[in-house]
């Protein structure tokens, strides 16, 4: 009798062993910050990935019992969290990092950035700049980014090679720029770009009308229609400065948000960057139209643009993501720093230390950003069925010791340099800080060589 029981148990164990599901990769960490609806944290925890999808999240024992992993990344001292989502940047502008600082937005744009772009921006510039930006993103834990720039097809090719996920917007602007002589050229370019990349596993093509103050009404409407026709995102700068509000009031007797509402611009796949100068009514318009908002605290502080009413957006349940903006106005692409500044700026702005707690800042950089980009069904949290975009972060530096609360540490003391592993779509882009998809030495050398041309262009 006893022997039979033992035999049965052994047979069951063998069967369980045989029926373990295949997983291409299992990542085991000290904690898994899932960012799921209940903000569950598993300590310790593991994430099972098969192909490009997360198939399970659980304790290391449970995952080990259920999956046969082709590869395991064991990071028992590290925190696993969803890859960070940068909802607003201009990647190639890393080439203008530190070129002109300490200026107001209009001076900065009109005296430095637009002239430098007119002379320096080329497909090669965009390739080299985007590669450098992508290297910085991989090294600092960003797995998805929304971009607005020129020669966006070059951005897309580089991003795909780097292995990052990109919502990439071809810029449409009224005046002649490097890749388009007229807004009509720019719109045609955007349409061709969308057709080429629609359906790509990493690239979501988009159209990026620059702003209401740099485009006429017909072009704004045409850009919005293009987005609707192809069901792709529309990315725009909105109400970044008080000057923009003055322009809108003088020329259109409305706020920037109200003007765009009046011309039928807003749609559900629209992302508005900044949204600093908005009225309560504007916030309601953005909520009603399901517009995502990208908060860019560092750029807003550096250009002294103002303090976005984050509390009002959150109270109105507007989909709110976080962005770095281009490196020329930040001056880096570190989303950990953006989280910290978002929390600090909201506190001083409202004179309320409870405003934007660490969890809210982390939400903006993960699930909030996914929602703002209308991608929260596939991104932004570590849950079965979602894309396998995740990072591991070391928590062993002096700066991070001791640790009582991982979420507090992620927002208030962690830096991009603490990221150890970056995984996008199930593919390991960086392990133990070794980037696999880009040749670091070559990327940096090319950017340094190109910086001489940029210097010449502004002299
Ligand atoms: Zn911007």
Largest sheet: 9 strands, mixed
Please provide the count of β strands: 19
Mean pLDDT: 95
End-to-end gap: 92 Å
Overall structural class, as computed from helix and strand content, comes to: alpha/beta
Radius of gyration equals 23 Å
Question: DSSP strand (E) fraction?
Answer: 15-25%
Write down the overall geometry. globular
Give a list of the ligands. zinc ion
Bin the helical content.
40-55%
Low-pLDDT ranges: none
Total helices: the number is 16
Task: Indicate the topology.
Blueprint: H1 2-18, E1 21-23, E2 25-33, E3 41-42, E4 45-50, E5 53-58, H2 60-66, E6 67-69, E7 72-82, E8 84-89, H3 105-120, H4 123-139, E9 142-149, H5 152-162, E10 165-172, H6 183-197, E11 203-209, H7 217-230, E12 234-238, H8 242-252, H9 256-262, E13 270-274, H10 280-288, E14 292-295, H11 297-302, H12 310-315, E15 320-322, H13 335-350, H14 358-372, E16 390-394, H15 406-412, E17 419-424, E18 427-431, E19 434-435, H16 440-458
Parallel strand pairs: 1-6, 2-7, 8-9, 9-10, 10-11, 12-13, 13-14, 14-15
Antiparallel strand pairs: 2-3, 2-4, 4-5, 7-16, 16-17, 17-18, 18-19
The structure holds zinc ion (ZN).
The site of zinc ion has 6 residues, from loops.
